Amino acid sequence: MPPKLALAPAHGSTSGYTDSERLAALNWLANVESAFLACRGRHNFPKLLLTEGQLPPGIRAERQADRSYNITETCPDCGTRRTYSTVPDGWLGGLKIHYRYEWPDGYRVPPGAMTWITLDDMKAEQWTRVREALEAADKLARKAKRQAGAAAGPRAVPAVRFNGGA
Ligand SMILES: [Zn+2]
C-alpha cells in the first residue's frame, strides 16, 4: 500500500515547491529500505567498549600524528558511518563533538523531499510495514491452527456432570 503523503508541504507554504519534489518524496518513502526508516533518529552504533583489548565490530579508532584519535562507528542495521575526533591525549565531550556522517545510497531523502514529509511520516510508514507483516503472520498462524484443529477431527466435548437437583 502506498504511503499516505501530505497533500501540502509538511512545513507550511507551497510557494517554491514543485510537484516533482512531492512525487520524488512519495517515491522515496514508498521504496526506501525499512532499515533506513527504522534508523531515523536511532542508529544502532556500537559502543566504545573493549572486550579482551578489542573494540567491537563496526568501530575503529585511528590514532593521529597529534595523538588525537579519529573514531568511526558503523551502524550494523543501515550501514551509516559517523566519524568524530578526540583531542590529543583527551576527550572532546558533549556538544563539542562534531560528527561527520556518511550515509549508504538511498538513505538520504531526495532534494526537497523534507518539504513534504516529516520524521513522523517516516515512522508511520515503518510502522505500517511492520504492522502489515505482523498481521499477515498472525493470519497464517490462525489458519495453521484452524487446519490443525480440523485435521484432529471434532473436539471432544467434555462430559458435564450436574450435581444434585433433587
Ligand atoms: Zn542505522
Compose a concise summary of this entry.
The chain has 2 domains: 16-32 and 108-147, no CATH class; 43-105, no CATH class.
Structure description:
By secondary structure, this protein is an alpha+beta fold. It folds into two domains: 16-32 and 108-147, no CATH class; 43-105, no CATH class. The chain is 31% helix and 11% strand. It contains three helices and four strands, in the order H-H-E-E-E-E-H. The chain has a four-stranded antiparallel β-sheet, with no helix packed on it. A hairpin with a 5-residue loop joins strand 1 (59-63) and strand 2. The longest helix has 33 residues, at 119-151. It is flat and about 90 Å long. The mean pLDDT is 86. The structure holds zinc ion. The site of zinc ion has 7 residues, from loops.
Secondary-structure blueprint:
Layout: H1 19-31, H2 34-39, E1 59-63, E2 69-74, E3 81-85, E4 100-102, H3 119-151
Antiparallel strand pairs: 1-2, 2-3, 3-4
Distance between the termini: 64 Å
Element-by-element helix/strand order: HHEEEEH
What is the percentage of strand-forming residues?
A: 5-15%
- Give the ligands present: zinc ion
Low-confidence spans: pLDDT under 50, at least 5 residues? none
Q: How much helicity do the residues have?
A: 25-40%
